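thought: user wants a sequence for this fold. calling inverse folding tool.
action: design(structure=
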């Protein structure tokens, strides 16, 4: 799809005139279906099992086993669906009897992250043989698997479950490729080779570098091209693969397929079992089933090395809600700290032992110049102890390191977390705003600011209170930074006095709950009078309306026409409470259908409607080629005005009828074309991406409803588009004390000039990079960021690197966020990838340069 669109460009002929462009054409043709992607393709339509299906089947089976064992230990019954069909929803439902704190959404997110990390290996390691077990790279492939497995266990020990999922998916790809790319199945083996996951066991009977292994295929028939003596002597081999060269050792088997140049050289043909239609596709199902069993063995290894509870955390099944606090500890914050303790301890004590008990606690303190460390624990008593140890001291020069503390929390919390920031001072590190925005978009987390002693409310306080706080009072521009970040995340910037803070902290129990969904939200700045409608469905409970702004006036209307205004504390539709610039209306009327609210304010306002429901959705923008059935999640902003594809997963008994990209300013929406992929997963294509900020809105029907009940959901976090394209390599391993270079490329689609480059890690690791790149109109430039982890960094530490590119004049910026894990093991494979990725970027840059020169 991309190649067709690109080569319709007016200057495509000039590109094709050069030999380099031929390489570019081959590379572009494989970016969305790389040669190795044929290995159990992420998506396939001919009945073949895919990497995604192999991974998900193994995860669901092993997760069901863990839940069954817990049920047996607890003397509970464990029942799978009558048809024994395992899905994310059916396993979660079966596990709910044996493990109280479960979330379909977090389970879906965890499984999706694992299999998407699996699929990403095809793109990350384009030209490297060992991750795909090609070219008889058995030892190197086993090193990848065993190092990855050690990294997973180390990350779990540090409760870095997202990093563990990323590493798990990557090692699964190599493990599964072994059964498709080697001759293990042809040798007649019916059980997995445990030696591929155990570095203490020998890999015996490997083909020597000069041992012939194949003969040419007889026409299209490659069923017997492996030499008889190889089969008789049980000698292990793989196919050779090369995208650019016919070269391979004499007598060796080839991988095979249209992109494998070696398969044209004697001996011709291939031995891969990637799909039913592959040259050894008659063995595809046997290879896929062995890959499933091998994947389950690795999962069992992890489960035995940890415990059932940790294993379910890895799968996202024991995660309900996360309580995450970022707290200013300067001298004036004693009252705020006391209130944060009160409300958090109240939640912990009231929900202990229930399905609403938080599954994880996060605390980051900041002051000036210090901030952190990130404290993350599953133990409520440890969290209480850390909260009790907070003391208010220091400060003096008002601005504090607020965004640095928030950066740690965003990078360390699970995706889609609610984070609460307590401060009464401006941010001293406001230069981190773009990085915070990038992490909000990539993690889809919500940030709520509890701002005390702000300028807006200075006039409402007593003389003594104003005098004691005047040195820390924030200006409107300083408050606006917090508002902007809150609005981008779908959160609130609540401006109160210290006296009224306890009323405002009701937001914490409201939003620190499981199965929280956003029905509707808008931001209006500047304000204008407007009427909004939204749909409430029968799956929703605890529906709440938030309005934040300068003196907002609003009236809520039910589907039957009953109304309640802001001035009514307890009215016909619910109860209203106010603290500072924040209004909370808890709806008590259980009416489904279309509700309406009219609202206005003096300068700005936000509106958010949310509740609890099992019906929700996850989404990622992906690069997708419909012709070849492959996709990979994007880790940066989509291109303004360009077309795009959204991968969407729906939870709960519902079906999708409409997916919209709604402009955050209210100036319109773009409707997508929906294609069902499998079960409750969809691909949604858009012919253009709105300019600026937008929200993803989903409309559909409840399946379990007695009637065709409509439902509506919206993404809480805003997404943004950009006219800058930035690409970088994805997650990897790095060694303590050893510099590692991440390569990236920046392409401009409009503005020429010097682009500002910024790079940061959440761990404060030493970075080296050029602060600018020069680009012409439709130009491209390459850069690199060298990261050095301190030599004493603990094995398994997860690190988030954000690379940003800003257009001249600050008119636009884009970013990529990458995660990697600090490993004590060799990272030779990652270094091989660095070379491969550099080649990829060079070819892409050459292509863009030729196209627009």
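)
observation: tool returned 853 residues.
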């Amino acid at each position: 799809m991309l190649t067709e669109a690109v080569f319709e460009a007016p200057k495509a002929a000039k590109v094709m005139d050069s030999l380099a462009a031929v390489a570019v054409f081959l590379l572009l043709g494989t970016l969305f279906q790389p040669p190795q992607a044929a290995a159990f393709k992420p998506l396939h339509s001919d009945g073949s099992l895919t990497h995604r299906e192999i991974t998900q089947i193994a995860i669901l089976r092993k997760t069901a086993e863990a839940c069954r064992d817990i049920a047996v230990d607890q003397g509970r019954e464990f029942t799978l669906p009558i048809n024994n069909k395992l899905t994310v929803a059916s396993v979660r439902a079966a596990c709910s009897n044996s493990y109280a704190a479960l979330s379909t959404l977090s389970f879906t997110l965890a499984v999706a992250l694992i299999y998407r990390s699996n699929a990403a290996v095809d793109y990350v390691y384009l030209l490297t043989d060992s991750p795909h077990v090609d070219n008889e790279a058995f030892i190197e492939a086993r090193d990848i698997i065993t190092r990855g497995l050690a990294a997973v266990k180390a990350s779990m020990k540090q409760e870095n479950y997202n990093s563990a999922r990323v590493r798990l998916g990557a090692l699964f790809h190599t493990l599964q490729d072994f059964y498709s790319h080697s001759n293990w199945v042809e040798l007649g083996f019916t059980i997995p080779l445990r030696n591929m996951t155990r570095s203490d066991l020998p890999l015996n009977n490997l083909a020597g570098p000069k041992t012939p292994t194949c003969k040419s295929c007889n026409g299209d028939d490659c069923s017997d091209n492996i030499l008889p003596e190889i089969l008789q002597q049980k000698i292990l081999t793989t196919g050779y693969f090369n995208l650019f060269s016919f070269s391979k050792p004499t007598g060796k088997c080839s991988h095979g397929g249209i992109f494998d140049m070696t398969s044209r050289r004697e001996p011709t043909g291939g031995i891969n079992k990637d799909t039913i239609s592959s040259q050894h596709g008659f063995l595809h199902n046997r290879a896929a089933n062995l890959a499933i069993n091998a994947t389950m063995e690795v999962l069992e290894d992890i489960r035995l090395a940890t415990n059932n509870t940790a294993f379910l955390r890895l799968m996202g099944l024991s995660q309900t809600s996360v309580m995450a606090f970022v707290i200013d500890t300067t001298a004036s914050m004693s009252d705020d700290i006391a209130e944060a303790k009160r409300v958090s301890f109240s939640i912990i004590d009231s929900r202990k032992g229930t399905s609403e008990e938080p599954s994880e606690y996060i605390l980051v303190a900041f002051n000036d110049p210090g901030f952190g460390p990130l404290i993350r624990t599953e133990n409520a008593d440890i969290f209480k102890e850390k909260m009790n140890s907070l003391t208010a001291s220091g400060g003096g020069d008002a601005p504090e390191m607020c965004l640095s503390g928030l950066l740690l929390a965003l990078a360390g919390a699970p995706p889609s977390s609610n984070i609460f920031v307590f401060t009464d001072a401006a941010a001293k590190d406001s230069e981190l705003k773009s990085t915070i925005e990038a992490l909000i978009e990539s993690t889809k987390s919500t940030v709520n600011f509890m701002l005390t002693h702000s300028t807006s409310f200075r006039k409402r306080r007593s003389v003594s209170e104003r005098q004691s706080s005047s040195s820390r009072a924030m200006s409107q521009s300083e408050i606006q930074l917090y508002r902007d970040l809150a609005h981008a995340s779908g959160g609130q910037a609540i401006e109160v006095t210290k006296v009224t803070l306890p009323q405002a902290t009701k937001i914490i129990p409201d939003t620190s709950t499981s199965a929280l969904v956003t029905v509707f939200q808008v931001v209006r700045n500047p304000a204008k009078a407007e009427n909004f409608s939204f749909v409430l469905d029968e799956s929703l409970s605890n529906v709440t309306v938030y309005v934040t702004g300068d003196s907002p006036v609003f009236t809520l209307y039910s589907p039957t026409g009953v109304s309640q205004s802001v001035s009514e504390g307890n009215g016909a539709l619910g109860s209203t409470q106010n603290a500072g610039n924040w209004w909370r209306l808890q709806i008590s009327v259980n009416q489904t259908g279309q509700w309406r609210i009219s609202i206005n304010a003096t300068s700005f306002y936000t509106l958010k409607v949310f509740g609890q429901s099992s019906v929700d959705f996850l989404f990622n923008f992906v690069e997708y080629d419909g012709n070849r059935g492959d996709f990979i999640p994007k880790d940066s902003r989509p291109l303004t005005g360009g077309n795009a594809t959204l991968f969407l997963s729906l939870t709960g008994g519902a079906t999708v009828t409409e997916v919209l990209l709604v402009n955050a300013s209210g100036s319109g929406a773009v409707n997508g074309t929906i294609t069902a992929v499998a079960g409750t997963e969809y691909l949604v294509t858009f012919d253009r991406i709105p300019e600026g900020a937008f929200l993803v809105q989903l409309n559909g029907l409840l399946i379990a409803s007695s009637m065709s009940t409509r439902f509506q959901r919206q993404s809480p976090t805003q997404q943004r588009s950009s006219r800058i394209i930035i690409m970088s390599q994805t997650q990897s391993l790095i060694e303590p004390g050893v510099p590692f270079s991440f390569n990236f490329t920046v392409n401009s689609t409009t503005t020429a000039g010097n682009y500002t480059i910024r790079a940061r890690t959440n761990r404060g690791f030493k970075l080296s990079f050029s602060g600018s790149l020069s680009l012409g109109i439709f130009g491209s430039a390459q850069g690199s960021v060298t990261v050095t982890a301190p030599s004493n960094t603990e094995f398994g530490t997860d690190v988030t690197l954000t690379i940003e590119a800003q257009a001249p004049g600050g008119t636009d910026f884009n970013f990529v966020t990458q995660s990697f894990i600090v490993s004590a093991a060799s990272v030779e494979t990652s270094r091989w990838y660095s070379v491969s990725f550099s080649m990829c970027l060079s070819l892409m840059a050459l292509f863009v340069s030729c196209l627009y020169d």
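thought: summarizing for user.
answer: Here is the designed sequence. The chain has a mean pLDDT of 83.
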